Recover the amino acids of this structure.
């Protein structure tokens, strides 16, 4: 993954995280406010009903209005202008709390006109009606009132949260999603750093190889042209091996460098008009040496076929596919190159009769470093970069490449080039 793409991903991810947290926080607070308002309305209705029942049983009239006042988030003062019986108040509170589905604890205190102090009544747990708690708290008296009682809901916050289960659950899911996303970003950044170190190492290593490879080539050429070596078959064979292996090493280094340029988008296509058939004949002549007496069979379209492409990369594409055919030939190599021209498409088919590829592995053959398994046979050399390079060069030119294969029947690579 490119560094700029990672940065864009992090910025986009950060914006998404901010949006998720902001939205979730807004809805959480909004839901809390709604639940709080709902609780307040229900509590006031319940206290009104309790007050009306007390007034009816005691035979007095309630104040006309505003005799129930919320003094704090969980504290209500009810002014009823009459003496209050503790037992009757508690009994009515229990009944009406359940009638209004306010399943939360409460305690109450009653103002004593004689002592001019609030007298604590009881702490009532709705889950246990026989409970007599010792949760007495100090509540200041309310000036200007003579007959009133105070009801407090100490577990109000817990009650509201219990009624926000769905919202809290979604909030937790959102938080977990954000944490997972942050972890993913951390993994991506870590892999990006590792990948960059790997690329830098490979690039530096391959560039360092170029100098000794060039020196070996020069020395091998001078060595192989020496009259003393020419006249000695054994030395001549060794000189040929040095030249051949040096060229092979150089090809592998060039392949790695080309891949590095592809990934950095630093390679340039020097396009020019190419006679496809002439280029293929030249490639076939060069590669036929590796195929011994079989050579490469050409089945070229009768019409002239031209395209606008980079001749070096075009040659490398065809050569890499032929090289794969030779590697996976199992000793019996037969390669055919066939071209055909359609109304809007030039098609190049490269066909071999090698060991073929299993269908489930076909989708991976253009992946970087991927190599088709050959079982217990370990004579296939390479880095798994050839077809990755081929695919990228075709994409850069605007071509498409497909592959068809059957196990033990051979493989066909099909390059489609728009006219």
């Amino acid at each position: 993954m490119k560094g700029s793409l990672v940065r864009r991903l992090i910025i986009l991810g950060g914006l998404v995280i901010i949006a998720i947290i902001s939205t979730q926080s807004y809805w959480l607070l909004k839901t809390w406010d709604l639940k709080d308002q709902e609780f307040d309305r229900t509590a006031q209705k319940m206290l009104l009903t309790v007050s009306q029942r007390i007034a009816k049983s005691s035979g007095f009239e309630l104040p006309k209005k505003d005799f129930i006042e919320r003094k704090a988030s969980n504290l209500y003062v009810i002014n009823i202008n009459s003496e209050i019986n503790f037992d009757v108040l508690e009994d009515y509170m229990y009944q009406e709390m359940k009638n209004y589905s306010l399943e939360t604890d409460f305690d109450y205190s009653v103002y004593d006109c004689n002592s001019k102090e609030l007298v604590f009544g009881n702490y009532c747990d709705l889950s246990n009606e026989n409970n007599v708690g010792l949760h007495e708290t100090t509540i200041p008296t309310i000036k200007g009132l003579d007959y009133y009682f105070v009801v407090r809901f100490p577990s109000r916050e817990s009650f509201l949260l219990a009624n926000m289960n769905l919202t809290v659950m979604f909030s937790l899911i959102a938080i977990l999603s954000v944490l997972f996303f942050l972890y993913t970003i951390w993994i991506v950044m870590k892999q990006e750093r590792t990948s960059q170190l790997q690329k830098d190492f490979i690039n530096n290593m391959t560039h360092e190889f170029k100098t000794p490879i060039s020196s070996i080539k020069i020395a091998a050429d001078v060595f192989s042209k020496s009259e003393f070596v020419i006249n000695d078959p054994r030395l001549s064979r060794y000189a040929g091996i040095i030249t051949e292996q040096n060229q092979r090493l150089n090809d592998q280094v060039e392949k790695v460098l080309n891949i590095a340029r592809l990934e950095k988008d630093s390679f340039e296509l020097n396009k020019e008009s190419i006679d496809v058939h002439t280029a293929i004949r030249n490639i076939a002549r060069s590669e036929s040496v590796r195929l011994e007496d079989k050579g490469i069979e050409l089945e070229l379209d009768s019409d002239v076929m031209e395209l606008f492409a980079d001749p070096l990369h075009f040659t490398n594409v065809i050569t890499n596919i032929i090289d794969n055919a030779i590697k996976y030939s199992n000793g019996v190599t037969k390669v055919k190159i066939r071209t055909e021209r359609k109304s809007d498409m030039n098609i190049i088919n490269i066909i071999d009769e090698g060991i073929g590829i299993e269908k489930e592995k076909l989708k991976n053959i253009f992946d970087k470093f991927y190599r088709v398994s050959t079982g217990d046979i370990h004579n296939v050399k390479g880095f798994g970069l050839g077809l990755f390079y081929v695919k990228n060069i075709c994409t850069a030119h605007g071509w498409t490449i497909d592959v068809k294969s059957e196990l033990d029947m051979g493989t066909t690579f099909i390059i489609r080039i728009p006219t």
